[in-house]
Design goal:
44% helix, 102 residues, four-stranded antiparallel sheet, 25% strand, 4 strands, single chain, alpha+beta
């Protein structure tokens, strides 16, 4: 899934105005982006803490707390975007973090 343009669609609250998207050059970059979003949220909530750590369960709770989270990943073979749900994003994020930990 390298170099496959990825759009993350999310809604942070019940308010429809909270709908937004994030645009990435690859699935890997998108997973980094989601982790970065969570890390910024943690820093916001803990401004005095210089070293913030979390585990995968915390990240999953953050994702589950979003009203909506999905991905559109470009497939070069069919020249279209394929939709993926929250569970797929969680699996890909876990795989991505596991690969980075090596």
């Amino acid at each position: 899934m390298a170099n496959r343009h990825t759009i993350i669609l999310m809604q942070t609250s019940q308010n429809r105005a909270s709908r937004t998207f994030m645009d990435y050059g690859s699935v890997s970059q998108a997973m980094d982006g989601i982790c970065g979003l969570y890390e910024r949220k943690l820093k916001e909530l803990n401004p005095a803490n210089r070293n913030i750590t979390y585990d995968i369960a915390d990240l999953y709770n953050f994702m589950d707390g979003l009203t909506d989270l999905s991905a559109l990943v470009y497939d070069h073979n069919i020249h279209a975007y394929l939709p993926y749900d929250r569970e797929w994003i969680k699996q890909r994020t876990f795989q991505h973090l596991k690969k980075m930990a090596r």
